[in-house]
């Protein structure tokens, strides 16, 4: 065998911004015959890749990857894909463990295929967000000597048939249910059904549901908790309900109620992925374990808490060994766990044993693991064929809600068998959630395919021009009014200000209402402005707020410091007090706009991500929906939720030390 990649044309998904060489020249560093000390490096992005064109069909036996000497941990998890035409790709290997490999013959990572792989193009894809950089990639094998049949097993598997059931333990608000169902229906085909398991004591909002034969909403009987095995039993309830309703299930997949489809479910790709018998989800940054002896679980490392929780069970290991013959446990991911019904039967036929597993854990929650992440794969490997895959990508590192740039990249770059992402905001107005909830925005997302042709580039740019033109036209019709304009009926040109200056004492939570003398009150006695301190207050705060109405805007100057200290530079931290302000404009206040003059410090912008919303009695987090620049100002927008009726107050947080000035307005119609 020879190194088929040596000196062949190479390219990559991107290049580091500091690299001046053309893309293909940088990529060639990984397989140049005259540079053993070179390396290539992509930009930091989702799922970056490097690939080589072998220039003819080859029988590939193994691939060897030599790591970079700097930051080798970046390349821990990767996949190898092959293609015969450079357009259609097939995953042939994924490294899912977290081990770090080296940069020499002894420590390089060697991928030996159980059966030779046929292809012309070979791609190495990093299975996460980061830079991809390697010293060298070598592809060993030999050119094909015979003409390939077009009727290969790969072609025969391209369109498998069968009934697929998705199951969800639903724990979200009622208003999110239509969004969740619509998301499923728009990204799955007619052979897919979803079974949504509502808690047994909760009424199903039938008024929000449109009947559809692929959607099944029912009340389970299991009292579900976030620990022990009740969530797994909830999924098994859905499995049983699906068997009774459909009579036949070919594949079953567990889903999270805060995970959404971001592109169509590729049934063929998911089924093909089962053949690789992954040990863990592709790109899973969270620790996992395969076939670990319960009696010798790890006692150190970042994931020690997981194993300690298992060890703290009340005889679970003895129960499993005595009653089921299980001595080894596997930790995996329940979200998007996809397998044949044969694998899930191994759990469903042992439902009594699963119920008794749950009895080995009690309360408190912090000392008991979620068995749904241990039991399924353990049973698959012990009783079944051990064939499973995960179609959901989890944002573990760091744990966070998906943001719009993530959504755009994942739509383009997720592995073919993956089509879901967790975590999404349950707020229908959240930009990533809303982008999946409208036909026109789904159509735009669909254009962000992996197709890289002149026609595709042309259409993408035209879409950009059109959406920008619509945005500009809508923006011209928006009218923003100073927040205080309706605070007095005799408003005239000139400057009017309201001042609050006081010590918020250490101790219990306090509410100062009204915050400013002379501000109007609602009929129910709630002021247009009040200050709410944290519960409890660990420090006394010197608090000073000045609200002023100029001829065309309202300004807020906020100064806060610890008692006994002078006002100083703004610092971000935990919220210590919140100033709630309402324009008292009712439903006409659909949008609040807070504006900072540029340039400003990053800590000032962080304040915008801690804004609250109130109905006059309770308050809630109010996520920023958009920001944009206009002249020397940056505007931050907050959209009224559709379920918020009546008056609305925006809450401006203050930290232990706050010094900020901003403009406040509401809109978007004339008042």
Overview in brief:
By secondary structure, the protein is α+β, with helices and mostly antiparallel strands.
Q: Can you describe what's shown?
A:
The protein folds into four domains: 2-156, Galactose-binding domain-like (Jelly Rolls, Sandwich); 164-266 and 309-394, Spore Coat Polysaccharide Biosynthesis Protein SpsA, Chain A (Alpha-Beta Complex); 447-477, no CATH class; 482-668, no CATH class. It has 671 residues and is α+β, with helices and mostly antiparallel strands. The chain has 15 helices and 35 strands. α8 (341-348) crosses α10. The N and C termini lie far apart (78 Å).
- CATH class of the largest domain, please? Alpha Beta
Output mean pLDDT: 90
Report the structural category.
Answer: alpha+beta
How is the biggest beta sheet arranged?
8 strands, antiparallel
Shape summary: globular
Assembly type: single chain
Helix content: 10-25%
**Portion in beta strands:** 25-35%
Unreliable spans are 149-157
What is the end-to-end distance?
78 Å
Backbone CA Rg: 29 Å
Question: How many beta-strand runs?
Answer: 35
Q: Any idea what the CATH architecture of the largest domain is?
A: Alpha-Beta Complex
CATH topology description of the largest domain? Spore Coat Polysaccharide Biosynthesis Protein SpsA, Chain A
Helical segment count: 15
Number of domains: 4
Based on the model shown, name its key terms.
671 residues, alpha+beta, Jelly Rolls, Spore Coat Polysaccharide Biosynthesis Protein SpsA, Chain A, 4 domains, eight-stranded antiparallel sheet, 15 helices, 31% strand, globular
